[in-house]
Write a structure and sequence with these properties.
By secondary structure, this protein is mostly helical. About 45% of the residues lie in helices and about 5% in strands. This is Starch-binding associating with outer membrane.
Amino acid sequence: MKTLKYIIVVLLLPALTNTSCKDYLNVKPKTEMTQEELFSTEGGFKDALNGVYIQMKGTNVYGRDMTMTTIEHLISSWDGDAIISTKVPYKLAHFNYTDVDAERSLSAIYGAEYKIIASINAILDHIDENRFVFRSPGVYETVKAECLAMRAYCHLDILRLFGPIPTDVNTGNKLAYVIHLSKTPNPLLSFAAFQEALLKDLDEAERLVKDIDPIVKNIAPTDAYFANRNLKMNYYAVKALQARAYLWFNNKGKAYECAKMVIDAKDSNGNPMFRLGKLADMSAKDYVLTCEHIFGLHDFALYTKYSSLYANGSLRKGSDNSIINSQLYGNTGTDIREANLWELITLPQSVLQGYVLKKYKVDESGTNFKQIPLLRISEMYMIAIETGQAADAQLLWTTFRSARGLQQNTLPADPVLIQNELLKEYRKEFYAEGQAFFAYKRLNAAQANVLFVPGEATLNYLIPMPKTEAN
């Protein structure tokens, strides 16, 4: 009998990817529930979906590897182990994908993403046939929409990491878009077919919640399940993910439309639903700028992660201001990120110093700001600036630079030069969030435009399929 771990839905990865039977994940949970039991109540569906959010905070996905470490090692965001030739970060920074340990670290991401998709599909495979168990208004639509959107979110990241460069979709891996639990291997899709499946999920998610999500209706939810919508895949998060996806698929018109809709969204008082963070936010020690989070994960362990990764110097960059202040920010003297996001520390048991990022620095006892951003309003500005008409792009550019404390300038007329300007901002803005690598890959950026990449490295955006998939 198929069993599911209660709350955290643990499923068999090979049932939906192309891995062999020997790779089955055997888990003996303390509390087991059959799928029939779990999905026999509205509460069971809620618990299963909460389990998906917990999975997304896992080490191999957005709790570390897809935000702070592995994905950032690919663009040499850190020193430490990344400058020791025998260490995995060094291998990743030099695009040595054949190294067994580097391959293992990337395979772990691949497997973890598909395990999240497995848990999502377990819910979706039951939700329509058991719709009658939903008693509270809007819960069925919300649960289904969040599942569809998160399935698209994970698939898009699999595509962005392991798929082809969008400017050359015929060179690189084909991937499976998995929509059901099955022991039958899933077909590997063309780029166009993968795109169609992903956008279909997002379109259906949008349709389900656009008229009922409390975040859209600007009303206080009557069901506690609908609280803290920016920590769930809400309607605006769906639109933001559409913007990200359309940009990857080079549909600039749709990317602009979706991004601008989120930028223009207003709350019940007529204020921006999601606003750009400013100096006052960082002065209040909100270094991760939670006001910008369209969708993020609340991570109770963030203090521990900061202590073990940053505060001890494991993830650091440079030992003097020539790296952070000069190369990254250009010695503006006014950029709020330059002035507030980094600090120089003395490394433990050493006289050496290094700059560490304060983005995830939080108080141990408090709950404020313990969020990992997955979709931010600043990204919507970047997308709209790249895809919008000149006048609107300039206005958005001016607004963004003002929020970051930068002097105003005029965007170049050449679209390629605009993209180069935005690449610099992706590098500054999304440090330790995993988005800069994807920006470089999407544009197939030349090595000269990829800040910090080792001069002796050969830039390679095409990551091979995990060896577990080769058979």
